[in-house]
Amino acid sequence: MKGTWTITFNRSRLSYKVVGPFGSLTGKNRYSGSQITFYKESEGTICPGAGVYRYRLTGRTLKFTKVREACGPRAIVTARPTYRKVG
């Protein structure tokens, strides 16, 4: 799944959108301390439930660490080494 991937978060709506070389998906998320839960994806995914990750934003670098995940595609996208904050 090489290529450029972006994750856009809408904190007021508690939603997110992922766009990559193979398409996009949107979903809901909720925050609890340094954890984020992704769930209810809407476009072309077969995710069987929620995925829980720790996240860390250091400067402009965002990194996810899997806590609990049953969805292979979502695990691949969040396993990217790092994301850079833009804007």
Helix content: under 10%
Shape: globular
What is the H/E order?
A: EEEEEEHE
Strand line-up in the sheet with most strands:
1-2-3-4-5-6-7
Low-confidence stretches: none
Q: Total number of β-strand segments?
A: 7
What count of domains describes the coordinates? Answer: 1
Q: Which structural class should the secondary elements be placed in? A: mainly beta
**First-last Cα distance:** 25 Å
Can you characterise this structure?
The protein is mainly beta and 87 residues long. The chain has one domain. Helices cover 8% and strands 51% of the residues. It contains 1 helix and 7 strands; from the N terminus they run ββββββαβ. A 7-stranded antiparallel β-sheet has the order 1-2-3-4-5-6-7. β5 and β6 form a beta hairpin. It is globular, with a radius of gyration of 12 Å. The termini are far apart. The model has no long low-confidence stretch (mean pLDDT 85).
What attributes does this structure have?
7-stranded antiparallel β-sheet; 1 helix; 8% helix
What is the gist of this entry?
By secondary structure, this protein is mainly β.
Topology of this protein?
Blueprint: E1 6-10, E2 15-20, E3 23-32, E4 35-39, E5 51-58, E6 61-68, H1 72-78, E7 83-84
Antiparallel strand pairs: 1-2, 2-3, 3-4, 4-5, 5-6, 6-7
